[in-house]
Structure formats: C-alpha cells, structure tokens
TrEMBL record:
<dbReference type="InterPro" id="IPR037143">
    <property type="entry name" value="4-PPantetheinyl_Trfase_dom_sf"/>
</dbReference>
<dbReference type="Pfam" id="PF01648">
    <property type="entry name" value="ACPS"/>
</dbReference>
<dbReference type="InterPro" id="IPR008278">
    <property type="entry name" value="4-PPantetheinyl_Trfase_dom"/>
</dbReference>
<keyword id="KW-0808">Transferase</keyword>
<dbReference type="GO" id="GO:0005829">
    <property type="term" value="C:cytosol"/>
</dbReference>
<dbReference type="GO" id="GO:0000287">
    <property type="term" value="F:magnesium ion binding"/>
</dbReference>
<dbReference type="GO" id="GO:0008897">
    <property type="term" value="F:holo-[acyl-carrier-protein] synthase activity"/>
</dbReference>
<feature type="domain" description="4'-phosphopantetheinyl transferase">
    <location>
        <begin position="119"/>
        <end position="181"/>
    </location>
</feature>
<comment type="similarity">
    <text>Belongs to the P-Pant transferase superfamily. Gsp/Sfp/HetI/AcpT family.</text>
</comment>
<dbReference type="GO" id="GO:0019878">
    <property type="term" value="P:lysine biosynthetic process via aminoadipic acid"/>
</dbReference>
<dbReference type="InterPro" id="IPR050559">
    <property type="entry name" value="P-Pant_transferase_sf"/>
</dbReference>
<protein>
    <submittedName>
        <fullName>4'-phosphopantetheinyl transferase superfamily protein</fullName>
    </submittedName>
</protein>
C-alpha cells in the first residue's frame, strides 16, 4: 500500500481482546523523546535503525522503544531489560514463554501489540486512494476483487486498505510476513472483525485517515 501523510496525535489507548495489549505510538516525536527511546535499545536494534534515512531511523527507534515499554509493563521490568530479539525475518521474539509481540508503522503513526498466551500480529496503514489498478496488484483474491467492485466507490478506499491490514496482521502473526502470497489469505471485504484464515481479526481504533488490524490466536490454536 502507498506511503502516508503525517499523523495527528494518537488517540487514547485502544480496546483489545483479553490477554492482548495494544498501544498507539507517535512516531513524529524528536529531541528528548528520541534520545530517551534510543537509550533503551540494544546495540543490534540501534544498528538496524541507523540503516535508514533520518526519518526512518526516528520511526524505528520510537516504535521499538514503545514495544519494549509495553513488554516492560507486562513483565514488571525496565524497558532495557526486556529480553527482546528479532528472528531472521525481523519478527519480534520475546524470550519469555507465553508472551508474543508485534508492531507496525505508517507515516507518523505506530501500533504495538503484546499477547499473553496467544500469538498476535498487527498492521497499520494510511487509507489509500482507490484506483482500479488496485485490482491488478496481485495481493487480492478473486473473491475480494469482486467484493470490492460491488461496493460504492466511496467505500472502496477504506475496504481495500482494511483488507491489506488484515492480511498483513495474519501473516505477521504466522511469522511468514510477505514471504507468503497475500492473495492466499482471503478476507471478508467490508468487515472490521471476523475470522481470516483461522485467525480472529479486528480493528484497532486509530485516528481518522488510518486503519489498523489485529490478528490473534490462542497458543493452543496455533499448534493445530
């Protein structure tokens, strides 16, 4: 999906299912906030953040620090003491049994999710303008393409962007990310919550102009 415009100030903490914590993150912060965020990251996290342009560096530092802060609240430790690493695909891995984490960024808005005794994936995107070219981008299943074309033109931007965020949330939760074909993960176009490929999905409340999706499955369900 396309890049985003600057975000308004994030809304208050959104609701989440039992056992899941979600938080919005202001990724436009700088100065002291950026320095405080960088202070809780480990050398590998800082090295990865520095590989981007200054704006990308800022977003990576603030998002990772926010994820550490959310996990720290769950564990009762300082953010810098959270055993947080990344697998080869870049997915966050928490060195505590039964605890999972995910994060996403779009422009100046970030979302982090922490799951206890469940797997989680989260994705946020700015609502993208609709053009018919979206149907040919290769990430929609045939049923989704047909459902989008049946919607009124004014409803298509939000519906298409939500379909994307639901797919990405599920693929992140699975641990495959976009290495898997997103068209094989079929959403129910127009629904803010439901079941997608065996994962429970729902909207995360975000400011107008964005859409965010959370995918959740209990640990025992992911082992079936």
């Amino acid at each position: 999906m396309p890049p985003t415009a600057p975000a308004p100030a994030p809304a208050a903490g959104p609701a989440a299912p039992p056992g899941v914590l979600t938080r919005l993150v202001d990724l436009a912060a700088g100065g002291d906030a950026l320095a405080r965020a960088a202070a809780v990251l480990d050398p590998a996290e800082l090295a990865r953040a520095r590989r981007g342009r200054p704006a990308v560096h800022r977003r990576r530092v603030l998002l990772r620090a926010a994820l550490r802060a959310a996990l720290a609240d769950e564990l009762g430790v300082a953010p810098g003491a959270v055993p947080l690493h990344a697998d080869p695909s870049g997915r966050p891995r928490v060195g505590v049994p039964g605890l999972d984490a995910s994060c996403s960024a779009s422009g100046a808005l970030g979302v982090v999710a922490v799951g206890r005794r469940c797997r989680v994936g989260v994705d946020v995107q700015a609502v993208a303008p609709w053009t018919d070219d979206v149907l040919d981008e290769g990430w929609l299943a045939r049923a989704e393409q047909e459902a989008l074309t049946r919607l009124p033109a004014g409803a298509r931007p939000l519906a298409a962007t939500r379909a994307w965020t639901q797919k990405e949330a599920v693929l992140k939760a699975r641990g495959t990310g976009l290495r898997a074909d997103p068209s094989a993960t079929v959403t129910v176009v127009g629904r803010a919550e439901g079941v997608v490929a065996g994962w429970t999905v729902r909207d995360v409340p975000v400011p107008d102009g964005w859409v965010a999706s959370l995918a959740v499955a209990r640990d025992e369900e992911t082992r079936r």
